[in-house]
């Protein structure tokens, strides 16, 4: 008997924003495994447990295979024609009756750039709306807003491996060992070279374990801590005066603000002498890099937290060369890309602002339309809050709001108020039951396209196998919808056609062709011309702002929207685990990953547990002003008394039943990482 032939298809991991290269192994038209792709400079053949098992969910029998239409409260299989005709009819009716603000479009960060670009193009061309957003809003929206204000560009400044050129690595609110393991590998390599690593986290995370020094502070007091560090740097005259004079503005404003932050131990919990020591250590390093993540962004002070890190780095001239910078570790495989593609309420692809008349005129010409809107559209959570009032119809591509957005009870109530909801996913999710039409998308292994990683590297995604049943690539579904509406400019035969349509109207990506992405190292945008080498490091000579200067902002500390009090005495923090990915639609269907951690748990300080008579492994109830969950207690000394930590992955014990929808005023980020809760013992269940 001859052995079946194996085919190796090089592609990009569908999980986190590190963007590791891997080979999908195909036998007889089916995936049978994953092989390292050693030529990828990102991961050099290594993978984390999620990357190594990313093929396992693809052929799951639970995949959506046919369009579904809800009739009399029950979902029935339908033909593509029926489903798409209904969508066109309902969205047209809504548009005619309620205008462009009557609809919301929520774009996935899991699907390739081509899917994101075409969805926002379809929404803008067909309905003249800017009510378009993606889940960066509840992830690194504050990075986009904050870094744009500070540096003129909302993206990470330096590539991952550049930490090897540093003299000091600061990781702030990032648990990269679990959330970005192959970026953390670079930090491990740097540590082996003798480069010191300091981790700032209220919790002794696996990343804190890796550090030379762990700085524990009270949750959500970043601004006070950073301001105090800057106070001591300026007080001891260790700031980089030449850099400040030549490349920045706003220093006086900053200096005046931080004058009041000499002693902030009562806010942060970190002794003043320690703050001074850390500050002087940062200032003394020749090249220091700051890596940060959601501990910084997912708060109502998110944008100000990011700008504070921008302040700190500019104060010491740590921008624009190897080994320095301020680097958000972008979360989802294509969260950078979804933003770059213009799935945003105020910009087109390449961050071309909709409010600028020339940009609108240019896009109207490129797309063959008139009347593109200039207004700032509703953001992700604003759209949810507007359901039933202003917004009557919604289209959700590859998102699971019932599990992942704050205050699940509110999300369910709001989705119920819609006249019409479309969800396009690869699996049936907790959110699907609120839909009127559910469409089956092809997953990453079944379509071509590109994902843009957190270091702005545009990586190819390649089709390895056919989609199940009648599932289709997401971009193809939008082509079909546009054709049904008789729209011009959607005559795409391949993902590459969509990419080229985007390139043609996006100056900072024009040079990034599919041909250039054939190389394993691919290309980093900005890449404005075919002969441009791409831009791994930003802000070398000048910042990306119109005047070329970086901006300091004097920012005052303010507490989170909801702080622990007598009624709800615990501060709840939320986050991730290495083995699971968000709402687990994919990792929950991987036997290996599910075996590792099959159930939700909450970390509680040992003293608190003793006081409340809670044993390790006991099921307890957490209650907030918005809802409740049950979860296993895990006792630890790695978090301070009064603080709890729970992962976000488990739909059956969903942490977002508890969280708060209060928004950061600048980026509209909800406070996913901080709310007040109380604990109840569940009597009789032990
Ligand atoms: N395994 C896995 N990896 C993932 C993902 C996943 O679901 N699973 N998701 C991806 C995505 S989309 C993202 S955005 C990234 C996120 O990556 P990370 O942000 O690194 O992950 P989190 O666990 O959400 O949070 C990071 C840390 O923030 C800390 N923290 C620091 N300061 C504060 C504070 O003041 N308040 C609070 N509440 N916490 C603080 C928490 O203790 C936690 O250790 O991970 C990506 N990678
Ligand atoms: N409390 C709390 N809440 C959080 C966070 C937190 O730290 N704490 N983190 C937040 C962050 S950073 C993020 S990014 C969000 C994530 O929130 P979501 O993006 O809603 O989470 P996912 O579970 O990744 O949902 C993605 C959906 O896309 C589907 N999908 C995957 N690939 C494809 C595809 O190719 N096509 C289509 N059509 N569908 C596809 C998956 O099946 C899944 O249902 O959650 C946020 N929520
Ligand atoms: S580090 Fe991220 S991109 Fe790399 S294999 Fe793991 S999940 Fe995939
Ligand atoms: Mo994220």
Automatic annotation (TrEMBL):
<dbReference type="InterPro" id="IPR027467">
    <property type="entry name" value="MopterinOxRdtase_cofactor_BS"/>
</dbReference>
<dbReference type="GO" id="GO:0043546">
    <property type="term" value="F:molybdopterin cofactor binding"/>
</dbReference>
<comment type="similarity">
    <text>Belongs to the prokaryotic molybdopterin-containing oxidoreductase family.</text>
</comment>
<dbReference type="InterPro" id="IPR006656">
    <property type="entry name" value="Mopterin_OxRdtase"/>
</dbReference>
<dbReference type="InterPro" id="IPR006655">
    <property type="entry name" value="Mopterin_OxRdtase_prok_CS"/>
</dbReference>
<keyword id="KW-0560">Oxidoreductase</keyword>
<keyword id="KW-0408">Iron</keyword>
<dbReference type="GO" id="GO:0016020">
    <property type="term" value="C:membrane"/>
</dbReference>
<dbReference type="GO" id="GO:0046872">
    <property type="term" value="F:metal ion binding"/>
</dbReference>
<dbReference type="GO" id="GO:0043794">
    <property type="term" value="F:formate dehydrogenase (coenzyme F420) activity"/>
</dbReference>
<dbReference type="GO" id="GO:0015942">
    <property type="term" value="P:formate metabolic process"/>
</dbReference>
<dbReference type="Pfam" id="PF04879">
    <property type="entry name" value="Molybdop_Fe4S4"/>
</dbReference>
<dbReference type="InterPro" id="IPR009010">
    <property type="entry name" value="Asp_de-COase-like_dom_sf"/>
</dbReference>
<dbReference type="InterPro" id="IPR006478">
    <property type="entry name" value="Formate_DH_asu"/>
</dbReference>
<dbReference type="GO" id="GO:0008863">
    <property type="term" value="F:formate dehydrogenase (NAD+) activity"/>
</dbReference>
<dbReference type="InterPro" id="IPR050123">
    <property type="entry name" value="Prok_molybdopt-oxidoreductase"/>
</dbReference>
<keyword id="KW-0500">Molybdenum</keyword>
<dbReference type="GO" id="GO:0022904">
    <property type="term" value="P:respiratory electron transport chain"/>
</dbReference>
<protein>
    <recommendedName>
        <fullName>formate dehydrogenase (coenzyme F420)</fullName>
        <ecNumber>1.17.98.3</ecNumber>
    </recommendedName>
</protein>
<feature type="domain" description="4Fe-4S Mo/W bis-MGD-type">
    <location>
        <begin position="6"/>
        <end position="62"/>
    </location>
</feature>
<dbReference type="GO" id="GO:0051539">
    <property type="term" value="F:4 iron, 4 sulfur cluster binding"/>
</dbReference>
<dbReference type="GO" id="GO:0003954">
    <property type="term" value="F:NADH dehydrogenase activity"/>
</dbReference>
<keyword id="KW-0411">Iron-sulfur</keyword>
<dbReference type="InterPro" id="IPR006963">
    <property type="entry name" value="Mopterin_OxRdtase_4Fe-4S_dom"/>
</dbReference>
<dbReference type="Pfam" id="PF01568">
    <property type="entry name" value="Molydop_binding"/>
</dbReference>
<dbReference type="InterPro" id="IPR006657">
    <property type="entry name" value="MoPterin_dinucl-bd_dom"/>
</dbReference>
<dbReference type="Pfam" id="PF00384">
    <property type="entry name" value="Molybdopterin"/>
</dbReference>
<keyword id="KW-0479">Metal-binding</keyword>
<dbReference type="InterPro" id="IPR041925">
    <property type="entry name" value="CT_Formate-Dh_H"/>
</dbReference>
<keyword id="KW-0004">4Fe-4S</keyword>
<dbReference type="InterPro" id="IPR041924">
    <property type="entry name" value="Formate_Dh-H_N"/>
</dbReference>
């Amino acid at each position: 008997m001859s052995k079946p032939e194996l085919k190796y298809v090089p592609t990009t991991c569908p999980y986190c924003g590190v963007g590791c290269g891997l080979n999908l192994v195909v036998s007889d038209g089916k995936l049978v495994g994953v092989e390292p792709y050693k030529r990828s400079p990102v991961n050099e053949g290594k993978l984390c447990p999620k990357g190594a098992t990313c093929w396992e969910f693809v052929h799951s029998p639970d995949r959506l295979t046919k369009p579904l239409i809800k009739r009399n409260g029950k979902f029935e299989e339908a033909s593509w024609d029926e489903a798409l005709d209904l969508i066109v009819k309902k969205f047209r009716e809504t548009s005619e009756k309620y205008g462009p603000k009557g609809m919301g479009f929520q774009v996935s960060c899991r699907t390739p750039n081509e899917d994101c670009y075409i969805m926002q193009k379809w929404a803008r061309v067909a309905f003249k709306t800017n009510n378009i957003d993606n889940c960066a809003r509840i992830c690194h929206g504050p990075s986009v807003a904050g870094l744009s204000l500070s540096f003129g560009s909302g993206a990470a400044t330096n590539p991952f491996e550049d930490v090897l050129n540093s003299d000091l690595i600061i990781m702030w609110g990032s648990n990269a060992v679990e959330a970005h393991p192959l970026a953390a590998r670079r930090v491990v390599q740097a540590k082996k070279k003798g480069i010191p690593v300091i981790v700032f986290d209220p919790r002794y995370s696996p990343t804190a374990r890796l550090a030379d020094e762990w700085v524990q502070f009270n949750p959500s007091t970043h601004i006070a801590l950073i301001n105090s560090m800057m106070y001591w740097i300026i007080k001891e005259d260790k700031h980089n005066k030449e850099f400040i004079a030549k490349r920045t503005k706003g220093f006086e404003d900053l200096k005046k603000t931080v004058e009041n932050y000499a002693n902030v131990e009562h806010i942060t919990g970190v002794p003043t002498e320690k703050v001074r020591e850390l500050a002087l250590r940062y200032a003394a390093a020749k090249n220091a890099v700051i890596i940060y993540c959601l501990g910084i962004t997912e708060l109502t002070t998110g944008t100000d937290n990011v700008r504070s890190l921008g302040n700190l780095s500019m104060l010491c001239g740590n921008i624009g060369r190897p080994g320095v910078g301020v680097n958000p570790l972008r979360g989802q495989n294509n969260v950078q890309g979804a933003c770059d593609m213009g799935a945003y309420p105020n910009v087109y692809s390449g961050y071309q602002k909709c409010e600028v008349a020339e940009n609108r005129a240019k896009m109207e010409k490129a797309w063959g339309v008139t009347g593109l809107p200039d207004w700032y559209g509703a953001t992700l959570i604003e759209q949810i809050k507007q359901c039933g009032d202003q917004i009557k119809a919604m289209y959700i591509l590859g998102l699971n709001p019932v599990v992942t957005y704050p205050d699940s009870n509110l999300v369910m109530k709001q989705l119920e108020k819609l006249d019409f909801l479309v969800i396009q996913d690869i699996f049936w999710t907790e959110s699907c039951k609120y839909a009127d039409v559910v469409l089956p998308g092809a997953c990453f292994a079944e379509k071509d396209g590109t994902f843009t990683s957190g270091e702005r590297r545009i990586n190819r995604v390649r089709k390895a196998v056919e989609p199940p049943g009648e599932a289709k690539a997401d971009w193809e579904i939008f082509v079909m919808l546009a054709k049904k509406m008789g729209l011009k400019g959607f005559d795409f035969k391949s993902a590459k056609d969509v990419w080229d349509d985007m390139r043609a109207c996006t100056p900072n990506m024009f040079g990034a062709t599919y041909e250039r992405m054939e190389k394993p190292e691919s290309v980093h945008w900005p890449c404005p011309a075919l002969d441009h080498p791409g831009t791994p490091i930003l802000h070398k000579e000048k910042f990306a702002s119109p005047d070329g200067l970086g901006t300091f902002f004097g920012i005052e500390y303010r507490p989170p929207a909801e702080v622990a009090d007598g009624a709800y005495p615990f501060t709840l923090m939320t986050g991730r685990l290495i083995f699971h990915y968000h709402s687990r639609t994919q990792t929950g269907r991987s036997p290996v990953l599910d075996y590792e951690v099959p159930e939700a748990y909450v970390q509680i300080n040992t003293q608190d547990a003793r006081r409340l008579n809670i044993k390790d492994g006991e099921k307890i109830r957490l209650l907030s002003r918005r809802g409740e969950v049950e979860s296993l207690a895990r006792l630890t000394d790695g978090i301070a008394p009064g603080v709890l930590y729970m992962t976000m992955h488990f739909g059956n014990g969903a942490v977002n039943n508890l969280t708060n929808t209060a928004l950061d005023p600048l980026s509209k980020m909800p406070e996913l990482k901080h709310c007040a809760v109380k604990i109840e013992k569940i009597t009789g269940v032990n």
